[in-house]
């Protein structure tokens, strides 16, 4: 550790960085609370609709759950890996509040028999029969999404008869009453608990009129759509937090602040260096630059790429090397959202040889590392079209490619662009054309929102790198805000039109 060199901003700049990161943390916590509020909203609506069926004398119109189940099916027991024909839902694919979480998936190659038996349809209930005592009995309602899905053996698929709607039973099992009955029905075995289909079927629940169930089900679907939109923004914000943290480490977070506090920084530099030398610290003289605005900007831009390469982990460096060699050999970007293409990449000799020291089965880790390298500006993230040969529908999938020769300065490009655009206030308006993708958001349950395919100016120059292509936007105004932030200008200075 004594030989490791680290950048050491002055104390005033350190405090500024901490203040900005703390503000980002506060916003993240506020957005996280949205999920809790939605859960409370569903619980409140449930008791408003069905509270009258719970009385001190017992349940009104009680039925056994088994009387309302038309079909139940255990999931598959196949070995799961980083790729396969079907994504497999597991116990951690259901949150404790009863929502599906498709962020950490495993895959399996299934037989025709397994595919037919574990088919999922809109409104199927997925019940977690085996888990810890606190989590056993989780359930979620399946909604169709893009891709082929199955489910593991510790989940049970339930299809209900027409007199009971899945949204009603889902909310009942996730209610205080449902949790109590499930806890009493669970059989403990060492560290795990189990609720069999028979145990579940014995639980009695009220059976309100179908019209009231239907009103509640429509409410739940509306809430699901809102939740999907909110969490998509939350995911984008989580990525933004990572980028902000990385920018803090390379000096990109506070360039404007440094310009405005040049005199304060100059004094702080003298104080810092004096104290460090008194304590015997070794200071890199090449890094001690007079804190003028131009020098500060040059100090962060010039060494940024080489500094970043030196800070990568061993795994990140090997992935970057393997990725670059693979793409140069294939002559194409790596389409990471195509399971077959990504699987071929992970199994390629170039990749396996580079990563063999780290073991095997690194699919998700490789995917995350590529996203990190793109966020650092060391590779490029793009969206590529793919046409479904059966439906003819076009989708835009995330891909990565190595930087072109003219892009190796992209860490400095944005700053140069900002400087050029702001040189003359009389020419401080910028016009861009955006190609947008609404279809992907529609299929993900975020109707009316869009993702960015490309952004160009009137001369055809590409400015797509100024925004996060994985983020979903609700309006062009939201996109303008991001562009303005990237260019360090006011949103009113940007004119944006859809191609």
Rg from Cα: 27 Å
Got a strand count? 19
Ranges with pLDDT <50 over ≥5 residues? 285-304, 413-418, 420-427
Continuous helix count: 17
Supply the CATH architecture of the domain at 62-207: Alpha-Beta Complex
Overall mean pLDDT score? 82
Tell me the strand order in the biggest sheet: 4-11-7-9
The CATH class of the domain at 62-207: Alpha Beta
CATH homologous superfamily label of the domain at 62-207: DNA methylase specificity domains
Name the helicity range. 40-55%
Largest sheet: 4 strands, antiparallel
Structure class: alpha+beta
The shape, in one word, is: globular
What is the distance, rounded to the nearest whole angstrom, between the alpha carbons of the first and last residues? 53 Å
Range of strand content:
15-25%
CATH topology category name of the domain at 62-207: Adenine-n6-DNA-methyltransferase TaqI, Chain A, domain 2
Give a verbal description of the structure.
- With 499 residues, this protein is α+β, with helices and mostly antiparallel strands.
- Among the domains are: 62-207, Adenine-n6-DNA-methyltransferase TaqI, Chain A, domain 2, CATH 3.90.220; 303-401; 409-499, no CATH class.
- 45% of the residues lie in helices and 17% in strands.
- α1 runs antiparallel to α6 and α11 (314-330) runs antiparallel to α13 (349-355).
- The radius of gyration is 27 Å and the shape is globular.
- 25% of the residues are buried.
């Amino acid at each position: 550790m004594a030989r490791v060199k680290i950048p050491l901003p002055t104390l005033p700049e350190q405090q500024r960085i901490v203040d900005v990161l703390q503000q980002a943390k506060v916003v993240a916590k506020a957005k996280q609370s949205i999920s809790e509020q939605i859960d409370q909203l569903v619980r409140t609506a449930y008791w408003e609709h069905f509270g009258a069926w719970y009385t001190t004398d017992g349940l009104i119109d009680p039925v056994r759950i088994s009387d309302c189940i038309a079909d139940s099916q255990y999931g598959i027991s196949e070995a799961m890996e980083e790729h396969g024909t079907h994504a497999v839902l597991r116990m951690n694919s259901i949150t404790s509040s009863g929502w599906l979480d498709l962020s950490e998936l495993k895959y399996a190659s299934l037989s025709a028999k397994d595919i037919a038996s574990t088919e999922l349809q809109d409104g199927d209930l997925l019940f977690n029969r085996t888990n810890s005592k606190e989590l056993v009995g989780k359930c979620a309602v399946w909604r169709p999404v893009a891709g082929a899905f199955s489910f593991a053996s510790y989940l049970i698929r339930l299809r209900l008869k027409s007199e009971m709607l899945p949204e009603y039973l889902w909310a009942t099992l996730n209610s205080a009453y449902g949790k109590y009955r499930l806890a009493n029905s669970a059989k403990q075995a060492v560290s795990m608990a189990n609720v069999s289909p028979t145990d579940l079927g014995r639980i009695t629940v009220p059976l309100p009129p179908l019209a009231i169930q239907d009103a509640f089900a429509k409410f739940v679907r509306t809430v699901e759509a809102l939740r999907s939109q909110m969490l998509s923004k939350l995911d984008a914000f989580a990525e933004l937090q990572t980028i902000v943290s990385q920018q803090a480490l390379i000096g990109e977070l506070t360039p404007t602040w440094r310009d405005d506090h040049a005199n304060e920084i100059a004094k702080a530099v003298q104080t810092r260096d004096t104290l460090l030398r008194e304590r015997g610290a070794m200071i890199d003289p090449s890094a001690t630059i007079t804190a003028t605005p131009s020098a500060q900007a040059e100090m962060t831009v010039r060494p940024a790429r080489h500094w970043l390469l030196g800070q990568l982990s061993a795994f990140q460096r090997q992935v970057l090397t393997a990725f670059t060699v693979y793409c140069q050999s294939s002559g194409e970007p790596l389409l990471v959202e195509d399971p077959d293409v990504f699987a071929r990449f992970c199994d390629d000799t170039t990749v396996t040889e580079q990563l063999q020291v780290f073991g095997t089965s690194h699919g998700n880790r490789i995917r995350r590392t590529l996203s990190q390298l793109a966020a650092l500006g060391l590779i490029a993230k793009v969206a590529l079209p793919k046409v479904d040969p059966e439906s003819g529908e076009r989708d835009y999938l995330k891909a990565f490619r190595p930087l072109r020769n003219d892009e190796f300065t992209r860490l400095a490009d944005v700053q140069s662009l900002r400087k050029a655009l702001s040189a003359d206030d009389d020419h401080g308006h910028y016009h861009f054309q955006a190609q947008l993708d609404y279809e992907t958001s529609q299929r993900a349950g975020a109707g009316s929102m869009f993702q960015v395919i490309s952004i160009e100016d009137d001369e055809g120059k590409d400015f797509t790198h100024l925004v996060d292509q994985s983020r979903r936007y609700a309006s062009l105004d939201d996109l303008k805000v991001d562009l303005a932030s990237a260019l360090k200008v006011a949103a009113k200075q940007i004119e944006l039109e859809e191609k």
